[in-house]
Amino acid sequence: MNIHEYQAKNLLKSFGVSVNEGVVIEKISDFERKIGTLRSGSYVVKAQVHSGGRGKAGGVKFAKTKADALEHAKNILGMTLVTPQTGPQGKLVQKILVTEAADIAKEYYLSFLIDRGTCKYVYIGSTEGGVEIEKVAEETPDKIAKIFVDPVGGFKAYHAVDMARALKLDDTVVKELISIMKGMYDLFTQKDASLVEINPLIMTKEGHLMAIDAKVGFDGNALYRHPDILELRDLNEEDPNEVQASKFDLSYIKLDGTIGCLVNGAGLAMATMDIVKFYGGGPANFLDVGGSASTEKVTEAFKIILSDPNVKGILVNIFGGIMKCDIIATGIVEASKALGVKVPIVARLDGTNIEQGKRILAESELKIIPASSMKEAAERVVKEASAHGHSSR
Ligand code: GDP
Ligand code: MN
User: Fold this and answer.
1) Which of 24, 80, 110, 223 is the most exposed place for a label (fewest CB within 10 A)?
2) Contact 162, 122 (CB under 8 A)
3) What was the pLDDT predicted at 393?
């Protein structure tokens, strides 16, 4: 789960990391009243959407006066921001953060996450922080420093001393770096984060370190034990189908192909996406209905696939183990009746109660194309979807 910049900064602040002050505004009419609590004479107006790269896309604007800040606020609030991370459809800006402008002497990059390769935590730092960090990582990886932390020992001050050396920081700010890195560590470990990133971490003209942008992501599987974090969830920022799927405990991830896949088991779902690709198609989604889904759950899963306008064909690939084929078949029939399916469906069912499952589909009057193997099913659905795509254009 991701959160907004202002929420990430509030959390970091509560863990002792210094950030620049700001106010969140959802309605322009609140501007005058809210901005009154800020001290500085210059401001930065920032779109609050779950995406990086806002600056380059016009979602971060510097303002020398309050009047300029108001102008930027009016422009940014309600705009659709398109960044390399949002996809071409962009994201509607429903909240802005207006901060006190910081005086920047230099921008650094600093993040904290798990390094799976070494089974350790790692701090990643760079002297080349700011809006070009992806380019730095790609073109000059030697400018990226990594400091590993053994999870048994945890964070120690010397990790910060090592990082300060790598970033060529003055001795005078090592203490500040220690509290920043300790705060990142504590936030990460106490709240089950998956990423804590500060970009840029700045050296102010007065010679202090400060976070002026932050991104924090959390491990979805651990959210049940952090109700305070779950409260920060903003459903406006998530794909509506993914939100709907999570209500029914379905693992659904939207992708950009045209073949809707309804599968049970994550492994079979991965294999299904692979074989669809192999036959020249692209999966429209990853969907695992789980090992023991009810008819209701299958119906919901089918509805979610059907609501994606990109879907030109559906591949049902089910191996009935704990899951029974008749349950799946009933779910498909119910959902199709309710929604009126216009795209071709290819179904490969096997396993427990296969005969009942086949009978339910055959008696349903739906035009479901049966397939006896995964290979046959994938090949067929790609062909049918491409024919359907042309005819409906
Ligand atoms: P991002 O583009 O989504 O990563 O948004 P950031 O919050 O990182 O802002 C992008 C860039 O705007 C930063 O790298 C800074 O160069 C600049 N910026 C952001 N806040 C301030 C500020 O308070 N003062 C100054 N001088 N520049 C800022
Ligand atoms: Mn940034």
Assistant:
1) 80
2) no
3) 47
Among all ligands shown, which has an atom nearest to the Cα of 5?
A: 1
Helical residues (DSSP H) of the chain, grouped into ranges = 5-14, 31-35, 66-76, 133-139, 157-166, 174-190, 227-230, 240-247, 266-278, 295-306, 325-339, 354-362, 374-391
User: Is domain 239-391 annotated with CATH 3.40.250.10?
Assistant: no
Give catalytic status of residue 197 as yes or no.
yes
Say whether 185 is catalytic.
no
Residue 122: both structure tokens together: 């790692």
Best residue among 61, 85, 208, 212 to mutate for probing ligand 1, ranked by most atoms within 8 Å of CB = 212
* pLDDT score recorded for residue 390: 75
- Looking only at the bridges linking them, the beta strands covering 285-288 and 214-218 are unpaired
Q: What is the pTM of this model?
A: 0.84
Ligand 2: distance of its center to the CA of 60 in Å? 10
List per-block mean pLDDT (blocks of 10 residues) for the chain, which spans 393 residues.
97 98 97 92 96 95 96 97 89 97 97 97 96 90 96 97 97 97 98 98 98 97 96 91 88 93 93 97 93 80 90 92 86 84 91 92 87 95 90 57
CATH code of domain 1-20+103-238: 3.30.470.20
Atom index in ligand 1 nearest the CA of residue 20 equals 23
And the tokens for 89? 């459809």
73 Cα: distance to centroid of ligand 1 (angstroms): 16
Q: Considering the chain, tell me which residue range(s) the CATH 3.40.50.261 domain(s) occupy.
A: 239-391
What distance in angstroms lies between residue 55's CA and the mean position of ligand 1's atoms?
7
Ligand 1 neighbour 197 (Cβ under 6 A): no
Q: Which of 9, 134, 213, 215 should be mutated for ligand 1, with most atoms under 8 A from CB?
A: 213
* 290 phi, psi to nearest 5 deg: 95, 170
Q: Domain 21-101 has what CATH class?
A: alpha beta
- CATH 3.30.1490.20 residue ranges of the chain are 21-101
- Please report the pLDDT score of residue 40 as a whole number: 79
